[in-house]
Amino acid sequence: MLPSRKYDCIVIGAGPAGSAAAMEMARAGLDILVLDRGEFPRFRIGESFLPRTKRAFRRLGVLDKCLALPHARKLGVEISLGDARHGSQYFHFRDVYGDGDKEAFNMARMHLDQMMMESAREAGADVRTSCAIEQLPRLEDGNVTVRTTHGEFHGRWLIDASGQASTIGKELGQRRFHSFLRNVAYFEHFEHVVRPSGRGQNCFALTIADEGWFWLIPLDATRTSIGFVARETLHRNLDVPSEDRLRWAISRTPMLRERMANAIGPEKNRVISDFTYRCDPFAGPGHFLIGDAAAFLDPVWSTGLTLGLLAAEQAAGSVIRMSRNSSPATERARHNAWMKRITDRAFRLVEGFYDPNFRDLLFSRNRTKQLERAFVTLLAGEIDDIPFGVGLRCQALRGLCAVQRVWPVTGRVRPFRIALSSPDAPTAIVSSAPSA
Ligand SMILES: Cc1cc2nc3c(=O)[nH]c(=O)nc-3n(C[C@H](O)[C@H](O)[C@H](O)COP(=O)(O)OP(=O)(O)OC[C@H]3O[C@@H](n4cnc5c(N)ncnc54)[C@H](O)[C@@H]3O)c2cc1C
Fold it and tell me: Which of 64, 171, 386, 422 is least enclosed, having the fewest CB within 10 Å?
């Protein structure tokens, strides 16, 4: 009987992180197996990218393929408080420090993920869909076995890119949830949402309320993704069925009502848990974790995909170096240290959003251009290699937040409360077939 094939690396999940890692390793001549329990194309949320994501796509050689798919330009972020009291604040990527990309794009993940999966296949990886990992009977350096719905497969290394399923994190009991970022997101795609002109043109719109926040993401020439991310106190206590909550929140929020006055889309919304967690250590015997399988972060700054692609580059680099005799201990330590540094930074950035003092500074009329540019540089996803000057300014910003907490240097801004706001005339969300 022939000995069963032993791959250099098995990747769980053909999402963007898994496909990116597979592409890198296959191009380096390694024998790669990618297993995904789903079928492509498939729906995924997470449709807004950063200038740093664009650079990662370019490095992978897939940027032109991305831009050939339906997409919308993203020049920055518009932040508002949901009603007219404070107006909107704009943060444009043209202000990013350094010579990185100064714009990004948004697109439906259905297109992107299919392209990434096919690119991994073109690079030489053996990509199999409708094949779910059920058990991990062996996880040792140089020797891993996965048991799937289609039998057992063997490899030297395993990369877990299984997204929020967190296959290894759950198996090893390593998944730890954030103490307060336990949100739930309600979302859908709509046609005929008003797109602002002027400074808000081609911006990701972020609208803050006391109980959560909305995203408005233009996806292509006509479609807009709209979501409401509800904080724990609201989603646990709200007496409205989950699939009606987007409409409920929109109808109580003046800015959303205005932009969606003629919107057309499904009456019921989709729902996804948005609980922030991490699964460190991010590498162990025989395995590496990347993307959402390693850590999931509240999506307010659209960092998910960027972090997944950057982590894929790191893990793939480790497997390639081990195939050339680098020691597993060295590569594990390297991956853990890199992932911890980047995850800590990203967590701090997201926690800042939920700090009312930071919000005060965002809406301050007196904010200094240099601090604003440092913040925009992080918003652009330039998080893995922060220039010294930017790091210093970010620390100054954190210091200002601490001062604002005890001795306000600028006026307090308080978002309005959706629950106290009465629904106006019903928004014109006309029922249509669910979006693909
Ligand atoms: C509400 C919300 C909004 C978001 N908005 C943004 C945004 O605007 N911008 C952004 O960058 N990010 C955003 N994100 C985050 C983004 O969606 C993720 O970071 C990104 O999808 C992670 O990619 P991935 O490749 O790690 O995982 P995924 O894309 O989830 O892929 C994982 C794959 O693993 C497969 N899989 C799972 N379990 C198994 C198994 N047992 N066997 C085989 N295969 C398996 C799945 O089928 C899937 O195809 C958002 C997330 C949420 C929840």
Answer: 422
Report DSSP state, residue 79.
E
Residue 190 DSSP symbol: E
DSSP states of 196-228 as a string? --GGGTTEEEEEEETTEEEEEEE-SSSEEEEEE
pLDDT tens, residue by residue, 97-151:
998 899 999 999 999 999 999 999 999 999 999 999 999 999 999 999 999 999 9
Rounded Cα distance between 160 and 169, Å, is 9
Instruction: Say how many Å lie between the CA of residue 14 and the centre of ligand 1.
Output: 10
What residue owns the CA closest to ligand 1's atom 17?
A: 46
Please state, in angstroms and rounded to a whole number, the distance separating the CA atoms of residues 369 and 364.
Answer: 12
Work out the angle at residue 321's Cα, subtended by the Cα atoms of residues 316 and 325, and round it to the nearest 5 degrees.
Answer: 145
Name 185's bridge partners: 229, 272
What are the DSSP calls for 145-171, one per residue?
EEEETTEEEEEEEEEE--GGG-HHHHH
- 298 neighbors 277 (Cβ within 8 angstroms): no
Decide: 381 in ligand 1 pocket, CB within 6 A: no
Q: How far is the CA of 18 from the centre of ligand 1 (A)?
A: 10
pLDDT at position 100 is: 87
pTM above 0.90, yes or no: yes
Structure tokens that stand for 155 in this block: 């490899």
Say what the pLDDT of residue 121 is: 98
* Contact 238 CB / ligand 1 (< 6 Å): no
C-alpha torsion sign, points 88, 391, 47, 228: negative
Domains of the chain, CATH where assigned: 6-70+108-175+279-347 (3.50.50.60), 355-406 (no CATH)
Q: Which two tokens stand for residue 174?
A: 């390593």
Count CB neighbours of 231 within 10 A: 19
Residue type, 195: R
CB 249 within 8 Å of CB 230: yes
Determine contact, residues 16/163, Cβ cutoff 8 Å: no
Residues of the chain with pLDDT under 70: 1-3, 424-436
Q: Specify the residue with its C-alpha closest to ligand 1, atom 35.
A: 13
305 Cβ closer than 6 Å to some ligand 1 atom: yes
Q: Which of 65, 11, 8, 55 is nearest to 37 (CA)?
A: 11
Q: Is 13 in the pocket of ligand 1 (CB under 6 A)?
A: yes
Which residue, by CA, sits nearest to atom 5 of ligand 1? 46
